[in-house]
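BACKBONE STRUCTURE TOKENS:
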Amino acid sequence: MLVTFLVILVSLLLLFGIYLILQQNKLKREIEKQQEEHLASMNAISGYTQSALLVVDRTETIRFFNQKFIELFEMTDAELIGKKLSETDLPSDLIEAFHSKSEFCTFTDIRDRSRERQLYLQPVRTKMGVHVGALLQINLEVHERNTQPFDPIAIKLEKVSHKLKTPLNSIMGYCEVLLTDSELNEKQLDYLQTIADNGGRLLDQIESILNDREESQRPGLRLVNNRENIRKILIVDDVTTNRTLLRIMLERHGFELIEAQNGKEAVEKVLSESPDLILMDIMMPVMDGIEAIEMIRKPENNLTELPIIAVTAINRRGNRERILNAGFNGYLQKPFKEQDLMALIGS
């Protein structure tokens, strides 16, 4: 009896061991598949981005880099691909910055020791949440050492502001849309007005805490001319509720609308569908608004006169001017009112 029990127990343990091995192999294949998909995606967008990109796996082995990365460090493919970071001739302070695991940091430009470059470090995870490596993105805009210092705290505050104001834009925007709905009764309208008023108070608190108030006013926006020539509008935003809110507001004024979820899609839609106006968010995945407008404004596209308005929660000192100088014709801060939007369009 005991022998039979032991045989059954050993058999079950063997079966369980085989099951674990099969599951482990399945997980490994899934991770490898998603790694390949990620690298394919990186390869697809590398021609559009204005940043230098490098992807390493969990062992810090280089799996991907774009042409801008090679040009920045004056290296060859053979000096990078398949090598660990520590085995390359990349700047030591770049490798130290990577090991610091800081989301934002700087390193010295090897061709001009008086300048610094910004490094953004993002973990790469599979759809199952498994950590498989990291993406290094290097901003190719240079900053004079000590004259334009890199400020990670300011960048962190900018991200916090953006994350808070994005959902607040939907809350206040949809309240405004519903408050114009004549089918609601007096009590419902009163409830909505209460939500809208408290949304405004919350916005005041956010701007006060994050010191955004100085640039929170709206004067000085550049109006888009020739309103009668604007019929088709491209809405670019990675948040679905933001695109829907703009669609609701603009449809009431008779515009034809098309949408894009990021800068790369926006560039493709501009070239294929020829909109008369673009309303574009700035902070988006794949390609942000600044990179997208650089692509759109290329001389060969003959689109220097196409009006493009930045619709964004970015609001810290100097950012508005930077955005307008990048080629945008106007700036609309989230949360916004329909009347502000229509004023920019010229309605």
